[in-house]
Design a protein that fits this description.
The complex is a heterodimer.
Chain A lengths: L2 H8 L2 H26 L15 H6 L8 E5 L3 H7 L3 H8 L23 E5 L5 H15 L5 E6 L6 H13 L3 E7 L2 E2 L2 E2 L9 H6 L4 E6 L3 H16 L5 E6 L17 H9 L2 H11 L5 H24 L22
Parallel strand pairs in A: 1-2, 1-3, 3-4, 4-8, 7-8
Antiparallel strand pairs in A: 5-6
Helix pairs in contact in A: 1-9, 2-4, 2-11, 2-12, 5-12, 6-7
Chain B lengths: L2 H4 L10 E3 H15 L3 E5 L16 H5 L4 E3 L4 H13 L3 E8 L3 H12 L2 H4 L9 E6 L14 H5 L5 E3 L4 H12 L5 E6 L6 E3 L13 E4 L4 E5 L3 H14 L4 E5 L2 E3 L3 H11 L2 E8 L4 H12 L9 E5 L8 H7 L3 H12 L3
Parallel strand pairs in B: 2-3, 2-4, 4-5, 5-7, 6-7, 10-11, 10-13, 13-14
Antiparallel strand pairs in B: 1-8, 6-12, 9-11
């Protein structure tokens, strides 16, 4: 029996359905955003996550609410999986005062400390050193919390990533590096920005456990996440997960995909993780299609409600412009 | 209040005399003793080195290597790690060995530390302090001598403190550590081993309060850091010529003690802003603009600025000396302002 098969058997029906609900919520939210943007219903900068849903959905099954997560501008799926309330998340993306950051952060800077989603950075690689600090805080305080840093393959060419990985391994902090290897760094193919073929191999060189996982397989991701999170929680130090996936769209909403291979994209679309997991739940776990359809309906209702609530929200009042710069407005230059 | 009364009486004979580096050390020691959430990280800060400028000497021995952590030469990781730990309430004090190396860490400083409170709508904050040594006047060349406070001041969300005495170093560093916002604490190398009285025990100077170092009726010199003693020496020269120079040490650039500057210049009607940072687009421009605007029509001379010349910092001693302001050039500018007609 492989580890993956073992995990699949360990994955209770309840957990398996929770993961499905998370993935469906991510997919439905993205569909609703794309629909709204196409219709001119609202404006936002949006970096699509279609195709990457399985990764955070599986990982978060092994995280607690008090574990910390850092993600990037392509991170809405991570936020949803970590438990950021959908209403507030959508409101933030729409720039409303009812959003997680009162409309002052936006889609590239989502955070919700109550859910443990501490930072969404718009700078490639910028979140990794911060994740080391979150993990270090857990260690210094003697808790068994862990931190997770999400980033793309594009972030593996920037210095901050290497500084963070070296330091995390050196200090053995409770951290899981989750490289969502979606084959593109912005508008450039992976093979066009590095000669490395295995990121796991490269990052293993820093002295930490590192492995390549099928990031579109919930079962494989769950197995890898369970092991990495358990290692971190037990004081065994960081893990680098190279989660193989595919970005089923351009860099950002409305951006060209002409540099992406059409046949490759079609293959990836055919194997996209939400449908794949749905089939697996039916075929391998024997979940009834009606049970999944019920979840789909509930998710659709929740997502619709989140957009209705968000659109009803007001924009931040003008006096919010100068609050939250410092702890006290008295310190602002005049 | 007379001008004389505004001059802070900081020379308390009863206070023991120490170097500024020892003052930094005392502030760190006291903060670590007072608060278990305070920890230090940086290059070579553990004993036996104790920091290249000795600011952390003895602290890893006293508090252990969990709380006083040597790092690799990785400024992005040093600052980023401090940010991460601070997001959940710890109070890290990071050391960036030289201010020039902020160039390496600037994404963490400017895009993360400065902005996370705002971007989270106030739901997180970054109570870190970044200590850094500032060179200049020591023949360390173009990459080890820069005063880069204007970079910091230009990014909304960062506080900037620059002590010129051991007493201020202890008081301001303590305030920075316990402040809820990211603070850049600039330790001027040429002042780190000058001596002065320091109050024992926990001692804090609120951020945003300038100090009038010397009263004078004819002109105001606003300065900070290593140019404070130069301005004081210039004021001595000028006093012999019958020119009264009021010297204001801003001590913190953000928050800026606007009232202290405006009150002084309203009386003297002449201002020279002096700093080791490059004059062009330097911090002095902001202060000059503020004074020109607020006191328009009440000034007896145009506001003067004296900063470093527009060049990378040269190595050769004579060229370096010509690059930075000094007491003679400060005195010249004050004289010119007083004799302006």
């Amino acid at each position: 029996m492989t580890t993956a098969e073992g995990t699949a058997r360990q994955l209770s029906e309840e957990a398996a359905l929770r993961i499905y609900r998370t993935m469906a919520t991510i997919r439905t939210t993205e569909d609703r955003i794309v629909q709204g943007l196409n219709a001119g219903q609202f404006r936002m900068t949006y970096y699509g996550v279609r195709g990457q849903e399985a990764i955070p959905a599986a990982i978060c099954e092994y995280l607690r609410r008090d574990d910390y997560m850092v993600t990037t501008y392509r991170g809405m799926h991570d936020c949803i999986a970590k438990g950021v309330p959908l209403d507030e998340l959508v409101a933030e993306m729409c720039g409303k005062v009812t959003g997680t950051s009162k409309g002052k952060g936006g889609p590239m800077h989502l955070s919700d400390p109550q859910s443990g989603l501490m930072v969404t950075t718009g700078v490639v690689g910028g979140g990794l050193p911060i994740a080391v600090g979150l993990a270090l805080a857990c260690r210094l305080r003697g808790t068994d919390q862990v931190a997770v840093a999400n980033f793309g393959d594009g972030a593996t060419s920037i210095g901050a990533t290497h500084e963070a990985c070296n330091l995390a391994a050196l200090w053995e902090v409770p951290l899981v590096f989750v490289c969502q290897h979606n084959q593109y760094g912005e508008h450039t193919k992976f093979a066009d920005f590095t000669r490395t073929t295995s990121l796991a191999e490269r990052f293993r060189g820093y002295g930490m456990a590192a492995l390549t996982v099928d990031g579109n397989s919930v079962v494989d991701m769950a197995a890898a996440a369970a092991e990495a999170v358990a290692r971190a929680r037990a004081g065994g130090g960081p893990t680098f997960l190279e989660c193989m996936t595919y970005r089923l769209g351009g860099h950002t909403f409305g951006a060209t995909t002409e540099y992406m291979d059409a046949a490759e994209m079609a293959r990836a679309e055919a194997g996209e993780p939400v449908s794949r997991y749905r089939r697996w739940l039916v075929d391998e776990l024997g979940i009834g299609a009606d049970a999944l359809s019920r979840i789909d309906r509930e998710v659709l209702h929740a997502v619709d409600a989140a957009f209705v609530t968000a659109e009803a929200g007001a924009g931040p009042p003008a006096d919010e412009l100068s609050t939250d710069v410092f702890s006290s407005q008295a310190d602002l230059p005049r | 209040m007379t001008a004389q009364a505004r001059v802070a009486n900081t020379d308390r004979a009863a206070d023991p005399v120490h170097t500024m580096s020892e003052a930094v050390n005392q502030a760190l020691d006291q903060a670590m003793a007072d608060d278990p959430e305070v920890f230090l990280l940086g290059e070579d800060i553990e004993d036996p080195i104790g920091g290249v400028m000795k600011g952390t000497k003895g602290l890893s021995t006293k508090y252990g290597r969990d709380r006083v952590r040597n790092t690799p030469i990785s400024e992005q990781a040093i600052v980023g790690t401090a940010i991460g730990a601070s997001l959940v309430g710890m109070r890290p004090v990071a050391e960036v060995m030289l201010m020039d190396f902020f160039a390496v860490a600037m994404d963490q400083v400017a895009n993360h530390a400065a902005k996370l409170r705002y971007m989270s709508g106030g739901r997180t904050n970054v109570p870190i302090t970044i200590r850094t040594s500032v060179g200049g006047g020591r023949q360390f060349g173009a990459q080890h001598s820069q005063s880069l406070e204007a970079w910091m001041m230009h990014i909304p969300g960062l506080k900037v403190a620059v002590p010129s005495t051991p007493r201020d170093a202890k008081g301001l560093l303590t305030a920075c550590i316990f402040d809820d916002d990211p603070c850049i604490f600039m330790e001027t190398m040429s002042l780190l081993f000058t001596r002065g009285p320091i109050p024992a025990g926990r001692f804090e100077i609120p951020l945003g309060r300038a100090e009038v170092k010397r009263a004078g009726a004819d002109a105001t010199v606003v300065t900070w850091g290593w140019q404070v003693p130069e301005a004081m020496a210039a004021a001595d020269q000028l006093a012999e010529e019958g020119i009264g120079t009021e010297v204001i040490d801003l001590r913190t650039l953000v928050p800026l003690d606007r009232d202290a500057v405006l009150d002084s210049v309203a009386r003297t009607t002449r201002l020279v802003v002096v700093h080791a940072a490059t004059q062009f687009a330097g911090p002095g421009a902001e202060i000059a603009s503020m004074v020109s605007h607020e006191l328009f029509g009440r000034l007896s001379a145009p506001v003067e600025r004296l900063g470093a010349r527009y060049s990378p910092i040269p190595y050769a001693a004579a060229l370096e000396a010509a690059h930075f302001p000094d007491r003679d050039r400060i005195a010249e500018r004050v004289r010119a302002a007083v004799h302006f007609s």
